[in-house]
Amino acid sequence: MRNVLFTLIVRPIVFIVLGLNIRNYERLKKQGPLVVIANHNSHLDTLVLMSLFRGNSFKHVRPVAAGDYFMKNAFLKWFSTKVMNIIPIERKMTRDFTGMFQPILDELDQNGIIILYPEGSRGEPEKLSKYKSGIYYLMRERPDVPIQPIFMHGLGKALPKDSFILVPFFVDIFIGETFKCDLNRKAFMDEVTTRLNQLRDEGNFKEW
Q: Per its UniProt record, what SMART domains does this chain match (predicted)?
C-alpha cells in the first residue's frame, strides 16, 4: 500500500505539481545503511526526500520523526506509520543516547536508509537554523555509516510551517557527496554545517 500511495499520489504531486530541479542526482546512494540529512522548512520535506528513492531502495527508507507529534491522533498515527513508516523518537532530555537512538541503530544494522534533520524542528522558510548535536551522538555509534547531505530550496514557500495550503513553487534539490562521522564532536558538527552551507551556496539564491 505504501508504495502504491507514493506512486499514484505523492510522486505526481512532488514531481508535477511542485516540480523538482534535482542537482547531482547521480550522487544519491541507493542502498543502505545510509543516513540522509537535510534542512527542514516544510511539511513536505520528508515526502520529497522519500520520493527521490524508487523500487527496492524505497522499501528501506524510514524518516525519523517526533513521536509526541506524529502519534497524537488516529489519522496522523496511521499516515505516519503506514504510509511514511516513520521511526518515532521522543523529544525529551536524556543522557541515554544509545537507548534513545536504538530503533534507528537497529534499522541501520538492517541496511536502512534513514532521513533526519539536524536542525530538529522546522525552521523559518529558507533559513538554516543551528544544528543540534543529536546527529553526532547517533553517528558516533555507527561511524562507518555514510551520511548524505541534501539541501532543499523552495519548500519553505510551497508549504511553510503552520500552513496547510499547498502553493505550487519550483523546488531545487542539491545532493552532496557522502561523508562519515568524525569522532571529535566539534569537528563533526562543523563539517555538517559546512556541507549543507556549501550545497545552499551552489544555488546562489537571493534572500526571500
A: PlsC
- Consecutive 10-residue runs of the chain (208 residues): their mean pLDDT? 79 76 94 95 87 91 79 75 83 67 95 92 59 92 97 73 58 95 95 94 71
Q: Are the C-beta atoms of residues 156 and 119 closer than 8 Å to each other?
A: no
CA end-to-end distance (rounded Å), the chain: 38
CATH number for the domain whose boundaries are 1-202: 3.40.1130.10
135: its cell numbers: 546527529
User: Measured between alpha carbons, how far is 52 from 141 in angstroms, rounded to an integer?
Assistant: 26
Q: Hey, what's the cell of 184?
A: 571529535
Residue 49's SS3 state is helix
Q: Write down the pTM of the prediction.
A: 0.86
Peptide bond into 118 cis (omega under 30): no
**Cα–Cα distance between 144 and 182 in angstroms, integer?**
10
Closest of 59, 51, 61, 62 to residue 89, by C-alpha: 62
Q: Is 45 exposed, middle or buried (0-12, 13-18, 19+ CB in 10 A)?
A: buried
